[in-house]
Write a structure and sequence with these properties.
- The complex is a heterodimer of chains A (402) and B (334).
- By secondary structure, chain A is an alpha/beta fold.
- Chain A contains 13 helices and twelve strands.
- In chain A, strands 5, 6, 7, 8, 9, 10, 11 and 12 form an eight-stranded mixed sheet that branches.
- In chain B, strands 1-2 form a two-stranded antiparallel sheet.
- The longest helix of chain B has 38 residues.
- Classes of the chains: A alpha/beta (402), B mainly alpha (334).
Chain lengths: 402, 334
């Protein structure tokens, strides 16, 4: 064959096609990987260690259901110590190790989400859920690959304030930790309170740990607030504030957002310090784990937990923190599976597009009814109140959407 | 004026806790010239030991029932019908917990003293005569060891412990304002004051105290005068561990048990520098000053400033007096 320019180009094109074919075939890995950073040590290790078993349960559940279109999934979890830089390093390491097999990631803080967000570009982009409800993340125009598995803190404040307004409340205090987590919904909450005709009589920032309780309680007493929303705490400060206020004799009603609504913590406080959390209310995006009658997905978790976590606290109860993680993983899996079923390649762009289009989805009982992703978040929740006699958080409102 | 008094008292109560944390750092520095960066974690161990002896052990099936809850008939009868936060109700609740509180404090003191002794014998004493910098770096390494060990032994679970003192509300009138105090905080402050006074008197007037002062002045001369410097080192570490156990127990009653307790040591380091690393009195005054400044800033400017203003004051003091308010100026002769 005579080699001229035209035949050379044709031969080169054919050779490239032949050599490229295996590359395309290799794009289908033998298993998909979902990476995660968890605070197994550090200040939020309590939450991290309660959440960690959820990944084992999710791996078993999702693989029993056929993984992603028949391809099994595997979770790779690493400790971050609740340090965003560590979470970023974990993400980069997982990318380097797992490559295109890794199709989603789960981060453990607002800080980690913000730090990793600029990295989510081109081939390094993956869809990413987290433990955070930071309002800033609920914006697909700036965070197209990141989502949250419930309402943002701003939406949670809206739910609480609307509930307070519905009860005829006229004044509220915001007490929050001086962290990003604590400050997140404060400005928005002030605007919502004004719209609802509720006066914000105190905005009080505290240390996230070791706060000076007498001083904060004194200021709360001076403010004369009927209601007080606590934001930005997990295991400490919020119980001491409520206990201090009760000792002071304040009749103020206290409310919390998601991270202050865990039964395990409320039970331990009651056991050690008495029933002063009686009537403490707060917003929860999800059903509690004992409310399983209309939640087939929870029933499945309960069945698996009995088998997998026998003899541990997870055998009979799944913490709200683990439920949030399971919800985040369910959202990711729904988006991944729907993308695969549509015959699309599992790129971050395709999965993110499917995820933002989730509509009227029956989650199997996480929420009160079918949910729709709005700005990559689910803007629904319910107000619950703690009963020290039964140790249960009971519904105080219907499911509210904002 | 009444409000000023209220916030000043709140600040003094916080400051007393800072002082109790700081006393361990000063004790070790005074005797060994080592700044113990791991002191916060020694306190965390004290808190966990208090939790172990006051909550975990009394909760075991094999433990006697009276240890978990002392319930003589007279106490139960008196307690019945009293509201939870009534002064008498709080005192009786505390009385019910008294056996496990005492067991918790005794256990924490002994166990933390053993930990302090082990650290001193295995990590510090072999480095005697070496550079102080090496010993300081050991304390930095200790942070990782102690936080890791605590996670393994107690896990990262958050929990709560009984108050050391009755947490009865105290109210009185002053300048036309009702002043409100938490009973437990008041007693915590008194405990801190007693411990401080005890240590200062011990250092001034006892043989062991004179040995510590002599060793702080010059180790070689102290040796030549017949003072057992290793014993002084050992005593300093045991003193730091036992005061740390009390500080840890008090912190645990205020904040609950969690691995984040170890971080308190770092915030107190600034106070120690302000007071003077080798001055008990200076550190005590600095701790109270920072406590009051924090409370006043919180009152007037809000929480975002409360963590900044006192530490700006610390910086200003250090710029004017680099050795702290009452710290000894080191003169190096060449």
């Amino acid at each position: 064959m005579k080699l001229n320019r035209r035949s050379f180009l044709a031969t080169s094109a054919a050779a490239t096609a032949v050599m490229g074919t295996p590359m395309i075939l290799r794009a289908q890995p033998s298993e998909y990987v979902l990476g995660a950073s968890l605070p197994l040590t550090g200040p939020f290790a309590t939450a991290g260690q309660l959440v960690a078993p959820a990944f084992q349960l999710a791996a078993k559940l999702f693989n029993d259901e056929g993984g992603v279109a028949g391809t099994p999934i595997r979770f790779v979890t690493e400790d971050s110590g609740y340090i965003p830089q560590n979470a970023l390093a974990n993400y980069q390491r997982a990318l380097a190790t797992e490559g295109t097999a890794m199709i989603a990631y789960f981060a453990d803080s607002t800080g980690a989400m913000k730090l990793i967000a600029p990295e989510l570009k081109g081939e390094n982009a993956r869809i990413m859920g987290s433990t955070s409800f930071a309002s800033e993340l609920a914006d697909p125009s700036t965070h197209p690959y990141q989502y949250m598995s419930g309402p943002s803190y701003q939406s949670q404040f809206d739910i609480l304030l609307e509930n307070i307004a519905a009860q005829g409340g006229t004044s509220v205090a915001f007490i929050y930790s001086n962290t990003e987590f604590g400050r997140d919904p404060i400005e928005h909450g002030k605007a919502t309170a004004e719209r609802l005709g509720i006066e914000v009589v105190l905005e009080e920032a505290t240390k996230p740990q070791g706060a000076d309780i007498p001083t904060h309680v004194t200021k709360l007493a001076q403010s004369g607030a009927e209601h007080c929303i606590l934001q930005g705490y997990v295991t400490g400060v919020w119980p001491q504030l409520i206990g201090g206020a009760r000792q002071f004799g304040l009749p103020t009603r206290f409310y919390g957002t998601f991270w202050g609504m865990e039964k395990i913590i409320a039970d331990r406080i009651t056991q050690e310090a008495g029933p002063f959390l009686e009537g403490y209310e707060g917003v929860m995006p999800y059903r509690y784990f004992w409310d399983r009658e209309d939640a087939p997905r929870y029933q499945k978790y309960a069945e698996l937990s009995k088998e997998m976590f026998a003899g541990t606290p997870m055998e009979n109860y799944m913490s709200t923190w683990a439920i949030q993680t399971m919800c985040g993983l369910e959202i990711a899996m729904k988006a991944i599976r729907d993308t695969a079923e549509a015959g699309q390649e599992l790129t971050a762009d395709n999965i993110a597009e499917t995820l933002s289009g989730i509509s009227d989805w029956d989650t199997g009982g996480f929420f009160g009814g079918p949910v729709t992703m709005e700005n990559n978040s689910i803007k629904t929740g319910r107000v619950y109140a703690y009963d020290t006699e039964t140790g249960l958080f009971n519904p105080r409102s219907d499911w509210l959407s904002v | 004026m009444g409000q000023f008094v209220q916030f000043a008292i709140n600040g003094l109560m916080s400051g007393a806790i800072y002082a109790l944390i700081a006393v361990g750092i000063v004790s070790v520095f005074k005797a060994t010239k080592v700044v113990n960066f791991a002191h916060g974690y020694l306190i965390m161990f004290g808190a966990y030991f208090y939790y172990t002896f006051a909550v975990i052990i009394p909760g075991q099936e094999w433990a006697p029932a009276w240890l978990a809850s002392w319930e003589p008939a007279w106490l139960m009868e008196s307690r019945e019908g009293l509201p939870m936060f009534s002064p008498m109700g709080a005192v009786l609740d505390w009385a019910q917990n008294l056996p496990r509180i005492l067991f918790g404090i005794a256990g924490a003191l002994v166990a933390n003293a053993i930990v302090g002794r082990i650290i001193e014998r295995t990590l510090m004493r072999p480095l005697m005569g070496q550079s102080v910098f090496a010993m300081i770096m050991i304390t930095v390494g200790l942070i990782s060891i102690m936080s890791g060990a605590a996670s393994i032994i107690w896990t990262a679970d958050a929990d709560f412990v009984p108050h050391i003192a009755p947490n009865a509300p105290i109210r009185f009138e002053m300048f036309g304002t009702t002043i409100f105090l938490f009973g437990a905080d008041l007693v915590n402050m008194l405990i801190a004051l007693f411990i401080f006074a005890g240590i200062v008197l011990m250092v001034r007037y006892t043989k062991s105290g004179v040995a510590i002062r002599a060793t702080a002045e010059d180790q070689s001369t102290a040796y030549s005068m017949g003072i057992s410097v290793p014993k002084v080192f050992s005593r300093a570490w045991v003193l730091a561990s036992t005061t740390g156990a009390i500080a840890g127990a008090i912190l645990a009653t205020r904040n609950g048990i969690s691995p984040s307790l170890g971080l308190f040591g770092f915030s107190v380091l600034a106070i120690v520098l302000m007071g003077g690393l080798d001055s008990y009195i200076g550190v005590f005054l600095a701790a109270l000053a920072v406590g009051v400044m924090e409370a006043m800033t919180q009152w007037q400017l809000g929480g975002d400033w409360a963590e900044i203003v006192p530490y700006v004051a610390v910086l200003v003091v250090l710029l004017i007096r680099p050795h702290g308010l009452f710290g000894s100026k080191e003169v190096e002769r060449i």
